[in-house]
Specification:
The protein is α/β, with parallel strands linked by helices. The protein has helices at residues 2-16, 21-28, 32-44, 110-130, 166-174, 185-193, 255-258, 260-267, 281-293, 297-321, 331-350, 370-385, 393-399, and strands at 19-20, 48-54, 62-67, 72-79, 83-90, 95-102, 134-142, 145-147, 152-156, 161-164, 180-184, 204-209, 213-219, 222-224, 325-330, 360-363. The chain has 13 helices and 16 strands. The chain has a 5-stranded mixed β-sheet with strand order 6-5-4-7-11. The two termini are 30 Å apart. Residues 8-51 form the HTH marR-type domain.
């Protein structure tokens, strides 16, 4: 019961921001004495701190409290076709460390990719400890179909991986320093976009575009996984029968017409400098934006064509699920302002309900960090479930800096 009440207070501060003890007591249906004791315990754990004076209402102003949590971090990591990336967030969502390496994962051995990721995770954990915090857990997102109970990537079409036991391989490399969990990267991106406490982000579809296209479904604030955990593989809806062959082996998948490869094929010839493998993804997107801003007709036509297909697919999903918002992430967010008119036109035309059933098109502000941020949030979730998992700072000091 005590743990549950500590969790209630901590989640209320996460979801709704700083609050006085009196306000917390009213919102949670607890006595002020009980809340004061809970806040004191959370402060002793290093998870909350004083946040100034809360004014308004009757009586004397109260001192508000807010999440602190600088002593504990969650690490999110990602294996994608073009990169591996890692981020560490503290309990309040602040970035403590961040690392990313560009690589062509589909051209490398699985062991090499995993080794590079582990190097980044260990470097990030070193940064966390140097900041005076400790890592509570690591969640790794992978691109492809994941058998979550076994933590095996069964099919990664664009990585060209099959039946890779990602969970056991990473644990063997990392040891028992902290809990490690594995998740689909699209699901992690969706978790990052479903902002706790924001009523406009509780029923959303997140569509993440890079070489492949994936995403996640959030319904009533909870991730929808599906019967066997494979929900969200939007990129493999068949939208163009007889079209281009996909990396999954089928023909006409959505990602063949709106993935990054489709855009680059439409915007630039093979010998165009923008197709140089040495260019990073950010550099390629910056060049696409530059050309579109200058009015280059071929670039604009390619963006319109991809925007049309995004809108067609988004309409299919909206007819089925009627989200409050479709959040476009990954490369879609970086150049989406050029595609918005085409996307919205086809969304409105393709949805049966008036005004697309109230579904809005939004662009992520998280860039390519959505999946790793979602991973860090998942890694921190056990602390919100049971704040006593975190040793008080004084006890941690006695234990020393051991992992």
């Amino acid at each position: 019961m005590r743990t549950a009440k500590l969790s209630l207070v901590l989640r209320q501060l996460r979801d709704h921001g700083p609050r006085s003890r009196a306000r917390l007591a009213t919102e949670l249906g607890l006595t002020r004495t009980a809340v004061s004791a809970l806040v004191a315990e959370l402060a002793d754990l290093g998870l909350v701190r004083a946040a100034g004076v809360e004014r308004g209402g009757m009586g004397r102003p109260g001192t508000s409290v807010e999440l602190d949590g600088a002593a504990v971090c969650g690490i999110g990591a990602e294996i994608n076709v073009n990169h591996v990336a890692v981020i560490a967030l503290d309990l309040a969502g602040n970035v403590v460390a961040e690392h990313r390496i560009a690589l062509e994962a589909h051209k490398l051995a699985v062991d090499e990719v995993l080794d590079r990721l582990v190097e980044l995770i260990e470097r990030t954990d070193d940064d966390v400890r140097a900041s005076g915090a400790h890592t509570i857990g690591v969640t790794v997102g992978v691109a492809g179909l994941l058998d979550r109970p076994r933590e095996v990537l069964t099919v990664g079409p664009n990585l060209r991986w099959r039946d890779v036991p990602v969970g056991s391989e990473l644990r063997a490399r990392l040891g028992a320093a902290y809990p490690v969990s594995i998740e689909n990267e699209g699901n992690l991106a969706a978790i990052a976009e479903a902002v706790p406490g924001d009523p406009n982000r509780q029923d959303i579809l997140v569509i993440f575009g890079e070489v492949g296209v994936g995403g996640g479904i959030v319904a009533a604030g909870r991730l929808l996984r599906g019967h066997q955990g494979y929900a969200g593989e939007f990129g493999h809806m068949i939208v163009e029968p007889g079209g281009r062959r996909c990396g999954c082996g089928r023909v006409g998948c959505w990602e063949t017409v709106c993935g990054l490869r489709a855009l680059l094929d439409g915007a630039a010839d093979p010998d165009d400098p923008m197709r140089d493998p040495a260019l990073s993804l950010d550099e390629r997107l910056a060049e696409l934006n530059r050309r579109a801003d200058l009015g280059d007709t071929r670039t604009i036509a390619a963006l319109d064509a991809v925007g049309n297909w995004i809108g067609i697919g988004a309409a299919m999903l909206t007819n089925a699920l009627n989200p409050s918002a479709i959040v476009l992430s990954g490369y879609f967010a970086e150049i989406g302002h050029h595609m918005r008119p085409a996307i919205e036109e086809h969304l409105l035309a393709g949805v049966l309900a008036p005004q697309a059933g109230g579904t809005r098109v939004e662009f992520s502000t998280l860039g390519f960090t959505a999946a790793v941020r979602g991973g860090a949030a998942v890694a921190l979730e056990p602390v919100f479930d049971d704040p006593t998992l975190v040793a008080p700072p004084r006890a941690a000091a006695l234990l020393g800096g051991d992992r």
